[in-house]
Amino acid sequence: MSQDSDIDAEIISKSEQKREIQAITKLGERLIALPASVVSDYPLSELCLKAILEAQKIKSHVGKKRQIKFVGKVLRDEDLEAIQQKLLVLDQQKQLENRKLHNIEQWRDRILREGDSALNQLIIEIPVIDRQHLRQLMRNAQNEIKRDKPPKFQREIFQYLKTFMDQLPTTN
Description:
CATH architecture of the largest domain: Orthogonal Bundle
Helix content: over 70%
Strand content: under 5%
Low-confidence stretches: none
Number of helices: 9
CATH superfamily of the largest domain: PSPTO4464-like domains
Shape: elongated
Number of strands: 0
CATH class of the largest domain: Mainly Alpha
């Protein structure tokens, strides 16, 4: 009787098998969407890497779909946990980068909204910032907002603040 329970534990329903295959195929699609230089750093076999790079080159919808299924099939023999861990690290890096860019946007908007008080606080936090240059950009951006012009100087403020991205304090 214990033999039967061991066999039942090993049997996976067909629906569960399909879900696993779909999950692996989705993983393959994520790998295909990454740049070739990034994918080559992943712990993949030669065959799998070649299949992914080939899928990136295919333009036709049907051909790409077929290649995605092939990548999913090849991925079944790979170390999926290591691949998923590497993707998780990549996702976390992207989230951190997005938070930093969002923080820059908030500082830019705050400088334009509050003027010199926000600018002074930023200079206290990061003394190497060129006060005159940033104040001139701020005035130009405020003028372009009043005149309903394209946001050239707002972008310049963003780019200038981006050079200090890692030093910017988070906004309140």
